[in-house]
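Input chain follows. Return structure tokens only.
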Amino acid sequence: MSINFYTPSRLKNYLNCKHIIFFEANKNKLGIKKKDKNISDLKRLEKGNLHEDEYYKLLKNKYSKVIDIKKLNISSEEKYQKTIESMKAGFDIIRGGYLKDDKWSGEFDFLQKSEKYKSNLGEYSYEVIDTKNTSGVKTDHIIQVGMYSYLLEKIQGLTPRSFFILLKDLKKEEIKVSQVNEFFLENKIQYEHFIKNDLNKTKPEKCDHCQICDWQEVCENEWKVKRHLNQVGGNNKNYIKKFKKNNINTIDDLAKIDVKKKIENLKEEVLQKLKKQAELQLIYEKTGKPCLEIITKNISEPKGFNLLPKPSSVDLFFDLESVPDHIYSGKLEYLFGIYYVEDNKETYIPFWAHSKDEEKNSLKRFFKLTKDHFKKYPDAKIYHYASYEITALEKLTSFHKVHGIDYDHYLHMGKFVDLFRVTKQAILVSENSYSIKNLEKFYNFERKGDVQKGDKSEQYYIEWMETKNQKLLDELQSYNLQDCKSTYELRNWLLSIKPNNTKWLTPSKEIIELRDKEIKFLDYQEKLEKTKVKDKELINILKDIHGFYNRENKPDWREYFDRKYFSHTELIDDIECIGNMKKVGDVTQEKRSYVFKYAFEEQEFKLKEGKRATIANNLFPDQTDDAGTIVELNHEKKYLKLKRGTKAGHLPDQLSIGPGSPFDPSKLELSTYNFIDSVLDQTGEFQSLRRLLQKENPKIKGIKKGEKILKTNNFFEEIPNIISNLDNSYIYLQGPPGTGKTTQAANAIVELIKKNKKVAITANSHKVIHNLIEKVEITATEKKVNFKGLKAGRTNDVDTVYNGKFVVTSSRDTDFIYGVKDKTTLLFAGTKYHLSNGYYDSKIDYLFIDEAGQISVADLIVLGQIAKNIVLIGDQNQLGQPTKGSHPGLSGKSILEFLLEGQDTISEDKGIFLNKTYRLHPKINEFTSSSFYENRLITDEQTKNRKILFKDKGFFSESGIYYLDMNHEDNIQTSQEECDEIKKIVDGFIGQDYFDGKKNRKITIKDILIISPYNAQVNLIGFNLKNKEARVGTIDKFQGQEAPITIISMTSSDPENLPRNKEFFFSRNRLNVAISRAQCISIILFNSNLLKFAPKTVDHVKLINNFYKIKKKYKKN
């Protein structure tokens, strides 16, 4: 029987792993079979069918003209003909029909008739709805339903604008085809080429999909037989590629490699570690006896064995069991297990949870037990294996809003001990994995029972959900107990092999009592739980916001303490740090400070000149964490200078520095409590803030609710009138690139000042605030308006100081207190840390929040209390708000994400959309408007006249976007190949004639913005150009700027070489900002191998879709 390759499910498999298709095509020939479906798989299918049936019942009740083709016992061809007939007959709902073209075919769940768009069927068209028993949309769904939409176009002659995924909670998620279609079409083409040309050329490679693949055992057996390098513990694709280039193809080759051999772009310590790992695994193969080697270089560092605390008489050993989201909505930690030995007596305490409420109760019981235990045994610790348990506790305390303070205390007291980190840093073992089950042979731990692995435990829990058979829970409890006991035995074994010349970790023994601010936190938590205020939606927002700043600080605090146990080499890869620096030259003295000079190797970091730094991995009690201030930072020559008070003493010769400890949010928390009080006491204060949080339409005098707000194109007159007519309300002014949002905001502010209104300006950074103040001063000067303004700043920090014609900087609260009362001081500016001062409350007439996409909902609550009216300025499609913490509900969103709920543009009845760009050439705007602004952004007439008049016709055309496919390998944060290409491009542009729409002039280096995601590449490009006037920087540096030409260097070679998270690199917003700096030409240098990235989420698909679009439409020949 021939296999039908051209189905959505096989295309999905191809994207997960090409070799799956090879197996499916050759399974009979090779005599192989995939693993049988387990109860989890079967239950998932059963629940999916029930979900579809339930939705069909709802549709039948809602629509009169419905047909169910699925139930018909007919062939696929007959189903196809029936589908065509039903579409032509105009059925409202068609269930289970069949679609096909020459190659492809598939059976959809539902087609729904839409009268929004005509098609060749008549005055209507169809869109696809697919039911999925999951809580979120997955990449697989995009491919599957994207295929149905593609096939649907063949019949109705119109590409559907959207398709829909109906999730398990009956939430209907809309996916706009334009946001995913290039990704789908490109992969479809690649798949067709693969089937025709490369099907039998594939080889199995380890990937993320292996863990859930039905063919995993077949691949594992093949790798073992062929002695594949991926069988070496700690090896990865990048390393394997480098080894194969050097003719090292098997585990045996690696074990025999000459110790003196050098491999390009592979650190010597990595090579030696992998060689030793291969040797140990071969010894185990030959002798059948597990063996290990202590990592001696870590004995003198705060790593490995040195991370073990002295054992207490009664330590705790902890393990969690969970099921994922597709089994229990929102995921469920269904079993907390705690084990300990006291007076030679074993105790095991399980906390079961079969619902989210019970999960919350288990969390409470866990902290009750451990707190009581620590009172009895202050030295006791909680041992666990790997980071899952601690990360889960952080998320659970955030989600359930209980015991977050206790969790923080445990971290600060060093109560958690991760034996995975200890083991991996202490010893090399003859296993290809550091899974605790792989290590158990070293300490002779034998497991009993049917459940031996996590995937089996998942199957048992699913079966219990259906049968309620207690024996299944008994097996799961036994499995959890064995995990806890194994952790206990592992700890004891590690103690038995711990070298005598290692130390004990000595974290704080102090039991932390509740501090005043923590008591206050708990008090407000109780108030919010017990309140009888009727507006439950607002109360729920406040419950989620409560504790935001503490949660936001948690990752920073955790990283701050984790870094103390990192080596200098490891800190090189931490973007927050500068790792492995070496002191150079003599220490000099300036007054009461020492100045130290350090050289550093190439690395990506965020630390800047003028900022204070800490000793990142300091564990010495006689050495303060403070490393001083970075007084000089030279990226090109790779050195920096630190200035530190003489009382703190000298810094070590080898040093790694990191950011300071997280900020103290006390003032912001007090401001949050002030708003909570106003809501609980029902004072009716802060109406504009409440209206925004409740997402009401703006209340504007003279404009009815639901009416179009902006009625003309006379922005300079109409926008100030709209803002001045706000009635204790808010307005959002969305300004895409080049639309003049800063100019419009400044114009409105000056008009308000003319009416003697008090105005405040804020943003996430001083730079943005200064930019708007400067524009206000220019506009006021043009309009001959005089006023007084105050900007909050620190005279010793130049980045915070603005002294202009009307506005001056002050650090004294008294100046602002007087200014608020003074009728002549009309403008106030500062970040949230300043404007959260209580003396502002409701004293400001209008608050302007610039770059509002970078302001959180929690920040809005802090800021919004100062003003009668709020004006949000920004664009949610440009650089957004960075959050680190785990936050419940929508509390982690930016205010624009919260307000727009995923829409790319503000609707005409809810805000102002500045629809005309004065920057972008129409050829650039064509991409920008369609990709980011729902085709609402148009260009000013004069932009089409901009062009570069090249003498060489083969260089570039006179305007537009150009994609250059770069061919390079192993580039991570720097690419010499792209630097060389950029040098050629820049040299080719300089001296060319540029017509800006009004006059001709010559292109200079200042007319070119060169952008890269990485500071390291920015530095390399700058060095190559050897021109101090070159404008080279990261995307963040150039937001708000423009130039005739932009050149974007994406740098990295492929997904395996991406040094940061994929969301950062493929960021839709960052791409928008980078391209939209250009007035005439934007050039993007990009290795097409980066598109081999396999997206894991819908957001990933949307991110990468734009790069596919660029590759397809703008590639330079």
